[in-house]
Amino acid sequence: MQERISELTPYLEAHVPGFQGPISDVRKTAQGQSNPTFIFTAASGRYVLRRKPEGELLKSAHAVDREFRVISSLAETDVPVPQALHLCEDESVLGTMFYVMSFVEGANWVDPRLKDESNETRAAVYDSMNATLAALHSVDVEAVGLGDYGPPGNYFERQVGRWTKQYRASETETVQPMEELIAWLEGQTPPEGPARLVHGDWRIDNMLFGPDGRCTAVLDWELSTLGHPLADLGSQIMQWQLPPGTEGRGLMGVDRAALGIPSDTEYAERYAARAGLADVPQLDYPVAFAFFRMAAIIQGVKKRALDGNASNPEAGLKMGAYVPMFAQAALMRIK
C-alpha cells in the first residue's frame, strides 16, 4: 500500500489545492487500525491519508466518507480538527475509498497516566480534553450542516438494540451478568435530549496535544453520529475504570490526585459547568452502557477466534474471557 500511495502524486496535484509532489517517506501509523492511516511527505508539506481496509466489509463499517464530512463541517467551530483536503470515492485510484487531510503536530498518549509528564502538563491535558468535549457537544449541528448526520429516535435505545443484536450474533454461551445488564439497560433508558454531535470513541489516544497541553486535533471520527452527549462522557469514564497499561489503558488504582489528574466527579463537574448544565449529570447509565458495548465488541472478537477468522486467535480468546468481567463491572456501578 505504501508503494501505491507513492504513485498518487499526479492525482493529488490535480485534486488537492497547493499539493506538489513527489511523495516520499510514507509510513503507516500504529493507531487507526480500523481505517488504516498513513503519514507521508511531499514537496508542499506533510499530509495524512486515511482509507478503508481492503476486502469484504460490513455495509456501514469503515465509513471514511462520514469522517471526511464531519471534520469538514467542524472546520469553523471550536473543536480542533485537521483540515479536510480531498475525499476520493473512486476505488480504482487506490483500491479503496480514501481521504487526505492536513498533518497536525501534537503529542499522542496511549496511557492516560502520562507517565513521563509533569503534574502541570497532566492537569492541562485533562482540562483541555474536558473543554474540547464540552465544545463538541455545543456545536449547532444544523448550522454546520450535520442535522441529518444520525437517525432519529432515542440514542441509547437505538444503541442498546444494535449492540444486543451484535452480541447475540456472536454469543457462544450464556453469560448471566450480560443477561442482567441487557435487561437493566432496556428497562432504564434515559429520555432523549436535543440531538448533539457525539464522537463515539472519546479517549486520550484519539487526540493530539500541543506543548502547552492544549488539544490540537481530535481524530478517528468513525463512530461519530448524532445522539446523547453523555455517551461520550460515560465512555471516557468507563475507560478510566480499567487497569493501567497498554492493554487496559485505564486509571484503576492510580493515585490521581498525586499525578494532577482529576477524579471522575471533578471531571464531570467541569464538563457540566462548561456545557451549561444545571446539575452534574447522572452517569450510571452511560458508564454501564459503555461497559456493555465493550463487552459486546470483545465477544465478537472471541467468536471470530473460535471460528478461526481472527488474525490472532490466542489473543482473541484471551480478550473474550473479559466479557463477564466487563458486564459485572457495569452491574457493580448500577447496583
Model description:
The chain has two domains: 2-102, Phosphorylase Kinase, domain 1; 119-334, Aminoglycoside phosphotransferase (APH), C-terminal lobe (Aminoglycoside 3'-phosphotransferase, Chain: A, domain 2). It is built from twelve helices and nine strands. The protein has helices spanning 2-6, 9-15, 64-73, 119-137, 155-170, 176-187, 230-240, 256-259, 264-275, 284-306, 313-320, 323-334; strands spanning 24-28, 37-42, 45-51, 84-88, 98-102, 196-198, 207-209, 215-218, 225-227. It has a five-stranded antiparallel beta sheet. A two-stranded antiparallel sheet has the order 6-9. A hairpin with a 5-residue loop joins strand 7 (207-209) and strand 8. The longest helix has 23 residues, at 284-306. The model has no long low-confidence stretch (mean pLDDT 91).
Structural class by helix and strand composition: alpha+beta
Question: Number of helix segments?
Answer: 12
Strand order, largest beta sheet: 1-2-3-5-4
Helix content: 40-55%
Strand and helix order:
HHEEEHEEHHHEEEEHHHHHH
Query: How many E strands?
Result: 9
CATH H-level homologous superfamily name of the largest domain? Aminoglycoside phosphotransferase (APH), C-terminal lobe
Number of domains: 2
**Shape annotation:** globular
CATH class of the largest domain: Alpha Beta
At CATH's second level, what is the architecture of the largest domain? Alpha-Beta Complex
CATH topology of the largest domain, what is it called? Aminoglycoside 3'-phosphotransferase, Chain: A, domain 2
Strand content: 5-15%
Low-confidence stretches: none
What does the radius of gyration come to? 20 Å
Rounded mean pLDDT score: 91
Separation of the first and last Cα atoms? 50 Å
Pfam families: APH
Protein name: Aminoglycoside phosphotransferase
Domain Aminoglycoside phosphotransferase: 26-246
GO molecular function: transferase activity
